[in-house]
Amino acid sequence: MSRVIYFDNNATTQVAPEVFEAMKPFLTELYGNPSSMHTFGGQVEHYIRSSRESVAKLIGCDSSEIIFTSCGTESDNAAIKGVLAAYPEKKKIITTRVEHPAVLAPCRELQGLGYKVVELGVDKDGQINLDELKAEVDDDTAIVTIMYANNETGVIFQIDKIAEIVKSKDVVFHTDAVQAVGKIPLNLDKSNIDLLSLSGHKLHAPKGVGVLYIKKGTRISPFIIGGHQERGRRAGTENVAGIVALGKAAELAIEYMEEENTKVKKLRDKLENALLKSCKDAKLNGDKINRLPNTTNISFEFIEGEAILLLLNQFGICASSGSACTSGALEPSHVMRAMGVPFTAAHGSTRFSLSRYNTEEEVDFVIEKMPLIVNRLRELSPFVK
Ligand code: PLP
């Protein structure tokens, strides 16, 4: 395959070479079942334990609070549905309009089953209003689920303040931190977060492994039942190779955290500043300050994000737009709509998300190509006079 410039790291990431090396033995010679009585299987348990400790270190909690799952989506579903099952008398869920479908879809399904679901709106920067949240949390609320950082814009929510409000009302707080973990430092021991989801493939581990953090003492029923794996909290034979990979990825994330917030951020800023300057009618979407260091979301007004992606693709550049193809028509992203981004700009929103594997040369290449793409599409646009 010809050269690929991968600026779509919020969609998924490259498996780190060290991670691949660490997981290999568990796909070859060390294939035993960690639950087996014999030494051959049982020896694998030790590696799971060590991986649990590495993940706990990354997010600042005790290893007994880490439950391995199959992905971020499972962790989100398990948190929401598990808490509702543990509090059968409570019928209200509070979330936001800008969550990932992994949270929005189960909430909407539950709404169909009779639960009251409140989706808080956001302002133009993508932030919720804390007073609105405070007013909504009541005795009937079983769970509040609000993402740590948004996947499309990178906007980081005021999670400490949010968790404090929710805790003061004695309600369970879950955060989907799939985009935050590995990119910004977290310390759950010092927080009021009860439940947190993360996903391996967003931090240079492979797809198919995730975590649900459950703070000690949190009331939650298991989502997947069967065997007694994960101390009865998540049944199913462990994805040993995936778990070992995630442990290694967590160690690397700790090692590279500083770089993520300096080198990667600098590359992101260079790209963003150049595109906002060189492309006419380009605007940044979301809070400029409270943002993941690797993400920029820019609207190129009057043109389609999909058209931009296709032309970028011709140069081997991978980026993303939040638009979804529903019933044959392109719908602007629900995140852009919730932020009140005008229709003509929401359609042209494009996300570039970087990682530690990106280089300045790649950024320069995109800076060179993007104005050409935008100008070419503007010439074809029916919206430009
Ligand atoms: N939550 C957020 C914020 C995400 O960005 C994603 C994936 O893009 C998910 C949840 C789902 O994670 P997974 O792909 O591991 O199911």
Structure description:
- With 385 residues, the protein is of the alpha/beta class.
- The protein is 39% helix and 15% strand.
- The protein has helices at 17-23, 39-59, 72-86, 101-112, 130-136, 159-168, 240-278, 305-314, 334-338, 343-346, 360-380, and strands at 5-6, 66-69, 92-96, 116-120, 141-145, 172-176, 195-199, 210-214, 282-284, 295-300, 317-318, 324-326, 329-331, 349-353.
- Strand 3 (92-96), helix 4 and strand 4 (116-120) form a beta-alpha-beta unit.
- The two termini are 40 Å apart.
- The model has no long low-confidence stretch (mean pLDDT 95).
- It binds pyridoxal-5'-phosphate.
> What is the domain tally?
2
Spans where pLDDT lies below 50 across 5 or more residues:
none
User: Going by CATH, what is the homologous superfamily of the largest domain?
Assistant: Type I PLP-dependent aspartate aminotransferase-like (Major domain)
Radius of gyration: 21 Å
Biggest sheet, spatial arrangement of strands: 2-8-7-6-5-3-4
Number of strands: 14
Small-molecule binders here are: pyridoxal-5'-phosphate
Distance between the termini: 40 Å
Mean pLDDT: 95
Shape: globular
Going by helix content, strand content and strand pairing, the class is alpha/beta
Strand-residue fraction? Answer: 15-25%
- The helical percent reads 25-40%
Write the CATH fold name of the largest domain. Aspartate Aminotransferase, domain 2
- Secondary-structure element string: EHHEHEHEHEHEEEHEEHEEEHHEH
Determine and state the CATH class of the largest domain: Alpha Beta
Return the CATH architecture of the largest domain: 3-Layer(aba) Sandwich
User: Total helix count?
Assistant: 11
Largest sheet: 7 strands, mixed
